[in-house]
Amino acid sequence: xxxxxxxxxxxxxxxxxxxxxxxxxxxxxxxxxxxxxxxxxxxxxxxxxxxxxxxxxxxxxxxxxxxxxxxxxxxxxxxxxxxxxxxxxxxxxxxxxxxxxxxxxxxxxxxxxxxxxxxxxxxxxxxxxxxxxxxxxxxxxxxxxxxxxxxxxxxxxxxxxxxxxx
Length: 166
Ligand code: HEC
What we know:
Elements: H1 6-16, H2 19-28, E1 30-32, E2 46-48, H3 63-71, H4 102-105, H5 108-116, H6 151-162
Antiparallel strand pairs: 1-2
Helix pairs in contact: 3-6, 5-6
């Protein structure tokens, strides 16, 4: 089995990088994701603190499309675990916080990183990393080297969640 966890890649990056540079990056609280972004088909993105400030596509997502992705039982699967303001959707999940108010609790940048990879905040989370291709076990062939959601879909979901205000 190939193990290319992002943590492992980061450890390798740190091992090869002069200490002063590591310290400078840590000070700036910026850890660029230099790992196999291109070869994996992921667009490179920069994590600042607990957030990814820049859109993965360089453009703002579409909230209506994002709503459809979140509610879709095949694409986002969010309602497997979450409930939310979707009066017409039956059988919503109760394994995760209600998505109502998510846009008040988190900035778009914070939401972006939580959808990209929730395990950065809780290593034991059951929430799938939607924009990561390494460290995924038991994924079907069609998902290998392909994130669950595309950069465009991530931005659509972020745009939708941002509209969920208390
Ligand atoms: C398999 C279960 C599962 C799925 C599927 C899932 N999540 Fe989560 N999500 C969680 C859990 C559990 C948490 C609570 C924090 C943690 O444990 O990571 C969470 C946390 C969150 C949070 C932060 C919640 C808050 O307001 O405090 C957001 C936003 C979120 N998820 C959005 C989504 C979206 C959007 C999708 C679909 C694209 C999704 N989640 C799919 C389980 C899931």
